[in-house]
Amino acid sequence: MKKKEFGICAICDREGILTYEHIPPKSVGNSKPKLVKGHEHLFEETSYLFGKTKKLNKGFGKNCLCETCNNFLGANYVNDYVDFVNQCLEQYNSSPSFENFKFYTFQIKPLNVFKQIFSMFVCINQGVFSDDDKKLIKDFILCKENKVFIENHNIYVFNTFSKFDKWCGVQVAYNGGKLNRCSEIAYKPFGFQMTFGSEPTNQFFQILNRFINFEIDQKVEIEIAIPRYDINNVFIGQ
Ligand SMILES: [Zn+2]
User: Fold this and answer.
1) DSSP 228
2) How far, in Å, is the centroid of ligand 1 from the Cα of 190?
3) Long-range contact pairs involving 162-169 (C-beta distance under 8 Å, separation at least 24)
4) Omega of the bond prior to 24 within 30 degrees of 0, cis?
5) Ligand 1 centroid vs 80 CA: distance in angstroms?
6) Cα 142 to ligand 1 centroid, rounded to whole Å
7) How far is the CA of 122 from the centre of ligand 1 (A)?
8) N or C terminus: fewer CB in 10 A for the chain?
9) Centroid of ligand 1 to alpha carbon of 135 (angstroms)
10) pLDDT tens readout for residues 27-54
11) Which helix (H) or strand (E) holds 181?
12) Per-domain residue ranges for the chain?
């Protein structure tokens, strides 16, 4: 028997047994063992972990959601997110050429997709939100129809086909004299950046907040010009 982990759920904020949340969902390929390097492996030279890697047997993710919230995402948003990924891969594979942007046409449920992407950022940034934001986050994710999104946060998309993946909690970066506060999740074909009261690190990333303008479960045709930006290292925007 595996040891059960207790803690606070990143979405509903209740204490209890935590379940493993795959980020992104395992049905987009994130179910195989993954070698990862975290802060302690990369930067903490005095740590015995420095220079080493950690193996996540179930794919990338963490014990951060109660079973109810985990199942809620699975029942309501995950399949719509998987659709979004698969349609991107289909269009990319049928014509992999890229100018600065690639023009995609998706038949998706934008609000459902947005709520799934946002849930992934909530999981990797647990602990950084204020109590007021936590209340908004919980209502936005768990009340399907709710469209009140936390202020000063935007989610952007780009394409990445790098061999590296990235899960980066909020970081501050100096970019040509400007300060960016962003979190980033990159797992081919998509990279997402969520900003915390700043601009994204790249002005060509496409904002996804307009997905909130649709109704829950509303399926529409949507066109997006997505820039390609292959990630190279662990820092946001790089
Ligand atoms: Zn929960």
Assistant:
1) B
2) 26
3) 162/186, 162/188, 162/230, 162/231, 162/232, 164/231, 164/232, 164/233, 165/34, 165/60, 166/191, 166/231, 166/234, 167/23, 167/36, 167/60, 167/124, 168/124, 168/234, 168/235, 168/236, 169/124, 169/125, 169/128
4) yes
5) 20
6) 9
7) 12
8) N
9) 12
10) 888 888 777 777 777 777 787 777 777 7
11) strand 178-187
12) 5-227
Containing 214, the helix (H) or strand (E) segment is none
Q: Which amino acid is at 95?
A: S
The number of CA neighbours under 13 Å toward the Cβ of 73 is 33
Amino acid at 125: N
Cα(53)–Cα(4) distance, rounded to whole angstroms?
24
pTM above 0.85, yes or no: yes
Q: What order of strands is seen across the sheet that includes strand 5-8?
A: 5-8, 15-22, 61-66
Question: What DSSP string runs through 118-165?
Answer: HHHHHHHTTT-S-HHHHHHHHHHHHSTT---PPTTEEEEEEE---S--
Backbone angles phi, psi at 231, to 5 degrees: -80, 150
* 194 CA distance to ligand 1 middle (Å): 22
Cα–ligand 1 centroid distance for 140 (angstroms): 13
Q: Residue 223 C-alpha to ligand 1 middle, in angstroms?
A: 33
Q: How far is the CA of 51 from the centre of ligand 1 (A)?
A: 35
In terms of Cα–Cα distance, which of 121, 129, 195, 188 is closest to 156?
195
Spatial distance between the Cα atoms of 158 and 99, rounded to a whole number of angstroms: 13
Distance 169 CA to ligand 1 centre (A): 20
Query: Could you read off the pLDDT of 131-163 as tens digits, one per residue?
Result: 999 999 999 999 999 999 999 999 999 999 988
